[in-house]
């Protein structure tokens, strides 16, 4: 449009029409020529790039083939190695499975054995429980039989008297004659003892070196009533011979003596506190305190009770009942 405007403004020369046309199309020709050259250059570049790509692709394809061959070789070696290892592992697994089978069989056998043992243990437990009850019953029966035997032995000794603290040798060669003459002198209430003393002798312990005081003199009376008269007279009038106290006590069995000795501590506590007490046959402590009377079969209970009592100013005399058992005590047993 610019060119047309310029041409319309000038005066047209009819003699130069071809030159003007050439001048008009020259820039277009030059532009077309440059475009063609550029296109040719691009085509050549693309051709060269295509050749390079084909060459690289060929090289890469050859490289991939080589890598595939190497990978196949490596995989083959690995396959052989792993197959050998897997074979060994399979053999080990088979051996282990066989051993586990043996162990499982042993465990089943052991389980059966344990079941049998449990059954036997249940039987043993039942027998033990049954025997425990029987044992407790037998212990009760044994204790009762011991007390009955002790009672029978005590009754067989009911006419015996112990003389404790009498100087050794005082009786001379004839203890029966000595006691027959001495008892009326010691206790005037015993006027006539002729024929009442049946036997008399000293009782020696196994350990004479460590024994305290002279050996005990024991004698047997003809009648139980005579023994009781002697014990009561000795209790009312304590005897002293050669400046030493002499005590008279009944003769009991070893079982009864042990039961009575268990109350020694309780009786000593009662004496210190001035509490009146009585040791009844066979082994029962009777305590009088604060206007009440308490009876104890257990030494521990007696000690606990006496320890809780206050100490009076004037202690009363204590008493020990040394009488033999009567029908009521037998019924109590």
TrEMBL record:
Coiled coil: none annotated. InterPro entries: L1_C (IPR042566), Transposase_22 (IPR004244). Residues 304-333 are annotated as: Disordered. PANTHER family: L1 TRANSPOSABLE ELEMENT-RELATED. This is L1 transposable element RRM domain-containing protein.
């Amino acid at each position: 449009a610019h060119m047309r405007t310029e041409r319309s403004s000038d005066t047209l020369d009819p003699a130069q029409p071809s030159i003007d046309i050439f001048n008009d199309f020259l820039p277009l020709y030059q532009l077309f020529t440059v475009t063609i050259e550029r296109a040719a250059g691009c085509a050549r570049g693309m051709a060269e790039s295509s050749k390079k790509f084909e060459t690289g692709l060929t090289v890469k394809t050859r490289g991939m083939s080589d890598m595939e061959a190497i990978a196949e070789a490596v995989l083959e070696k690995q396959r052989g190695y792993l197959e050998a290892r897997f074979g060994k592992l399979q053999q080990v697994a088979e051996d282990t499975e066989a051993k586990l089978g043996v162990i499982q069989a042993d465990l089943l056998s052991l389980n059966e054995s344990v079941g049998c043992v449990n059954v036997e243990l249940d039987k043993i437990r039942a027998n033990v429980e049954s025997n425990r009850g029987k044992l407790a019953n037998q212990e009760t029966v044994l204790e009762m039989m011991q007390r009955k035997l002790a009672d029978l032995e005590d009754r067989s000794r009911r006419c015996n008297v112990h003389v404790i603290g009498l100087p050794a040798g005082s009786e001379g060669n004839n203890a029966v004659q000595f006691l027959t003459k001495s008892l009326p002198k010691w206790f005037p209430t015993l006027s006539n003892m002729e024929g009442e003393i049946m036997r008399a002798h000293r009782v020696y312990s196994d350990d004479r070196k460590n024994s305290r005081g002279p050996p005990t003199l024991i004698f047997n009376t003809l009648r139980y009533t005579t023994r009781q008269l002697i014990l009561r007279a000795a209790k009312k009038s304590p005897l002293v011979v050669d400046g030493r106290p002499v005590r008279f006590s009944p003769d009991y069995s070893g079982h009864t003596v042990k039961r009575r000795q268990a109350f020694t501590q309780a009786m000593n506590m009662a004496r210190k506190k001035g509490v009146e007490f009585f040791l009844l046959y066979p082994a029962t402590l009777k305590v009088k305190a604060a206007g009440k009377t308490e009876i104890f079969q257990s030494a521990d209970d007696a000690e606990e009770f006496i320890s809780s009592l206050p100490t009076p100013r004037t202690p009363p005399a204590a008493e020990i009942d040394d009488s033999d058992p009567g029908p009521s005590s037998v019924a109590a047993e």
